[in-house]
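Renewal narrative, Specific Aim 1. Our central claim is that a sequence can be written position by position from structural information alone. The example that follows is taken directly from our test logs and has not been curated for this report. It begins with the structure tokens describing the chain, in the order in which they were read.
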């Protein structure tokens, strides 16, 4: 995809800046940003921790840290969203260190298909989800994070770079390698 989502999200970026400025003056205004980003931050935490309670804790710590540091946010090349996900990334690193885990549980990386509908189709979807979870679990941590941030949370390569402290080009390379590895592991080609 050649278009950058950041340009598509320009109204959101502008709205974020307005809301950040309001929160820097009145902490109660932070609630707007909290409501806007609660689900995406929680999703990121859950996909990498694999446990609802741990994800809730990491999400809570992320927003508390962001609220405490909101006065230090500056619009200098990083969007509020990427700044917030960087805080979440740091909280996840702390949580994983605390739990002494090297890798996430791949069973929790892909949601199960919804119930109802054609049983054969549901069986196929469940099998595909199982295969994808297993394949994601074999990826190195940085590649797995790029896949989750890009395709689950919808961050741009630039925003992922801020979160992971990598260049935009390095993120694109990681994404390419992750998708190539997944295609190989799943026995598919990019044209499928």
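The sequence written for that structure reads:
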């Amino acid at each position: 995809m050649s278009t950058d989502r950041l340009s598509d999200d320009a109204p959101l970026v502008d709205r974020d800046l307005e809301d950040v400025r309001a929160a820097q003056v009145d902490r109660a205004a932070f609630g707007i940003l909290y409501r806007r980003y609660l689900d995406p931050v929680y999703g990121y935490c859950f996909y990498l921790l694999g446990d609802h309670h741990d994800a809730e804790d990491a999400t809570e710590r992320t927003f508390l840290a962001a609220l405490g540091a909101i006065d230090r946010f500056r619009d200098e090349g990083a969007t509020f969203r990427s700044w917030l996900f960087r805080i979440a990334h740091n909280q996840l690193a702390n949580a994983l260190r605390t739990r002494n885990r090297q890798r996430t549980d791949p069973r929790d990386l892909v949601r199960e298909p919804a119930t109802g509908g054609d049983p054969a189709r549901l069986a196929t979807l469940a099998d595909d989800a199982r295969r994808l979870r297993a394949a994601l679990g074999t990826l190195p941590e940085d590649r797995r994070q790029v896949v989750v941030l890009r395709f689950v949370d919808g961050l741009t390569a630039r925003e992922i770079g801020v979160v992971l402290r990598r260049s935009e080009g390095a993120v694109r390379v990681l994404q390419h390698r992750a998708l190539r590895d997944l295609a190989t592991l799943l026995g598919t080609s990019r044209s499928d």
